[in-house]
Structure prediction request, 175 residues.
Amino acid sequence: MVDTVDGAFEIPGFSLDEVFRITCDNYRQCLPWAEDYNVIINVETHGPYTSNQEFMLRLFEHFDSPYLRFNFDTGNTFISGKDPLEFCKTFRKYLTHCHIKDVSPALAAAVRGEETGIGSSEVPVGGGVNADNIRAVIRYLQETHWDGAVSIECSGTDENTRQSLDFMRSIVAGG
Prediction:
């Protein structure tokens, strides 16, 4: 699997339809290679277009390819002002990879609904304002028997990593 994003900003002077056409042209060139080499291209929620549910649905339905899939990010979806569980449910059938990321209260207060992505969580997973959403997403994925890859994304201090793993283990174990 390889992950791709759309960048942090809208392209000035381009309509959503123009961006969609360009996006399709790009994936049309990449997908034959992905198929030849059995590589899944995951589109991650990280920018203005990938945070747009209608745009993303249109993209996945346009290609209907097992080689173009979805990398869901709980933190990016939350910071963009969306409901992570509802976003995940919308794209469940395309989901192959999941980034688990929390958001600090200060960051959420400063940029939620204005930004579309963050590099990693400064707080441990489970230690921020997105913890309940993460619990709900993991439970939903368990209930639907999802079998994909999960990555924890937090600032890599020993303590953040330990707390994030403890939190995730408690959810996976049914806590």
